[in-house]
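thread from #wetlab-drylab

HS: before we spend reagent money on co-crystallization trials with zinc ion, can we at least see a predicted complex? here's what I'd submit
DV: go for it
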Amino acid sequence: MPKAAVSVYTTLRARLGFARRELEGSTVGDLIEALCAVKEPEIRKILLDDGGRVRGHFVLTLNSEMLDNAAARGVGIKDGDILHIFPPVSGG
Amino acid sequence: MLTEREFLRYARQIVLPGAGAEGQEKLKRTSVCVVGAGGLGAPCIAYLAGAGVGRLVIIEPGRLEPGNLHRQIIYRNEDSGFSKARSAAAFAARLNPEVKADMRIEPLEEGNAEHIVSDCDIVADCTDNFAARALINRTCVRLRKPLVYAAIYRFEAQLAVFMPGRGCLACQFPSVEEGTIRPDEGVAGPAAGAAGAMQAMEALKLAWGMEPDGHMLLMDLRNNEFAKARLRRLPGCPVCGGGANGKISGT
Ligand SMILES: [Zn+2]
């Protein structure tokens, strides 16, 4: 299985206890499942809606390109890919 | 034409590739609206004033609280309790008397946003809440003004420049979940400082005519990780229309 670096921000980072981790998966969906598995059911609730889709306020980027949340799960992963998951922040 | 005093004052900036005396004159003719004079706004105002931007419009309703001072570096202890807009404008004027520093001791709101923004060339969003950010975004899209956006959370910051017709803040963040991220979760002063300084950098580059790079910068100053996300135009964006067919709605 390909390995990708997954970086998380803000609340996800606080709940997961890390900023970046190497995870295995052949699709973005696999990586998301691997992330959820780190701390069930907490991370799943934060990250996904009831339909299993990444919540609208999170932006996913794969190798710096933003993904469409509705289609993100099916996107293929290659070794060395970099996935970022971040919400908007508002502080100033 | 620049005066001899201006040549001396801005010497180190005028020699920059792409700036020059002509660039300095461009700065002098540029007005920047800085919305919010807090952790982002303070360094942004300082660098813009130092650089010789012709006119700064500082929008800030608040008064300085002691808890602001760890990051809002243009204020002094004795400014506590006084209008931040007034102190910020006074700071800019003391730093650089060549700069016209206007201030408005009021929040940016539906009723005044269009009037204030239409009078400026560039807008810097240095606010601290989603509602103000959404209003600034809508106003900049409607008036076709470049928007220099930054936002912070603890040790993290986001920075982007939104150009008219090339996607807006809502294209990147179509929904926000107010309440998941609260402003009381802490902010590292220098993280706000870095982001605010970069907003000034982006505003200066815009004024000099340098193209923005079309990405959002994600800064993690806890781990010193920096990442870029290419800005997108979201088809059917409720604010800008996403430019899916090359047209921007609301203009
Ligand atoms: Zn948009």
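DV: The mean pLDDT of chain A is 96.
HS: ok that's useful, forwarding to the group
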